Amino acid sequence: MNFKSLNKHFHFTKQQRIGLFVLFVIMIGLQMFYFLSDFSISETKSSEKEQWLALQSEIDQEKLIHKNAKPIIYPFNPNFISDYKGYKLGMSVEEIDRLMAFRKENKYVNSAEEFQKVTGISDSLLNKISPLFKFPDWKQNKNNYSTEKKVFSMKSFPKKEKFIILDINEATQEDLMKVYGIGEGLSSRILKQKEILGSFVSMEQMKDVWGLSPEVINELSIHFKAVIPSNLKKININEASLKELAQFSYFKYGLAKQIVIYRSMNGNFNNIEDLAKIKDFPVEKAKIISLYLEF
């Protein structure tokens, strides 16, 4: 067997021997790293992941509970049920309309039985919603008051203070907040609208105040009236400039411009009927607008 021919395959140069040595050192180092390293990190991450999954499961369960929970309905005065409120309670359109018509006559229901009589709702619906009715304390304690009146009938009581209707232009924020349904925000809007106009000339203008429901407007009309002040500053429709007309709450810039053009081409306006001929003029508010103008 010729060993010389095999020997030349195992003969390495100096650089090759150094390379083999370095490779050997690297292999030994990798083996030591494998045996000495701690690979328990994955287990820690796995346990953290399980904790997060458990927490997420609890959150999902809470969401499901809240989603399926029925909304809380608080007691309310049935005299002031809106269309949407009546619909949510299960009332028909006709039943809601009967209540609205009854309230427009400035009448109130004072018991669940009277509510059914006015609206015509079924007994089953009445049994369902009547526990939520909340009438004024003096109505709930009517029997007590009647008894007290009989027992103390011989005593002298002070006369009931006469109901006074206030001028809406003289009302303070405190006066307005005494009306059922009006808080600090709505009262501020009413006073701001009065400041913009100078004065109210009609209680119909309450409809222009954002946020006032028909029921609240009706209550305002009971407690207040609009007295036109003698010093109300009016706009001379035949002499006012475009800028002055555009600043008037009931005129937009486009309408004010049309008024000036019409006036220059056709002469002065004699009355509100002449003014109403202009395109886009708010005819439905003509009566109110005329009280702010001077012809």
Structure summary:
The protein is mostly helical and 295 residues long. It has helices at residues 3-7, 14-36, 41-68, 83-89, 93-104, 112-119, 123-129, 137-140, 142-151, 173-177, 184-197, 214-223, 242-246, 253-266, 272-275, 286-290; strands at residues 166-167, 224-225, 235-236, 293-294.
Q: Can you walk me through this structure?
A:
This protein is an all-alpha fold and 295 residues long. Among the domains are: 78-136; 166-225, DNA polymerase, domain 1; 235-294, Photosystem II 12 kDa extrinsic protein (DNA polymerase, domain 1, Orthogonal Bundle). The protein has 16 helices and four strands. It has helices at residues 3-7, 14-36, 41-68, 83-89, 93-104, 112-119, 123-129, 137-140, 142-151, 173-177, 184-197, 214-223, 242-246, 253-266, 272-275, 286-290, and strands at residues 166-167, 224-225, 235-236, 293-294. The strands form two sheets. A two-stranded parallel ribbon has the order 1-2. A two-stranded parallel ribbon has the order 3-4. It starts with a helix and ends with a strand.
Q: Fill in the CATH topology of the domain at 166-225.
A: DNA polymerase, domain 1
Shape: elongated
**CATH 4th-level superfamily of the domain at 166-225:** Photosystem II 12 kDa extrinsic protein
Topology pattern, helix = H, strand = E: HHHHHHHHHEHHHEEHHHHE
- What radius of gyration results from the CA coordinates? 42 Å
* Strand content bin: under 5%
| CATH 2nd-level architecture of the domain at 166-225 | Orthogonal Bundle
Q: Would you tell me the overall average pLDDT?
A: 82
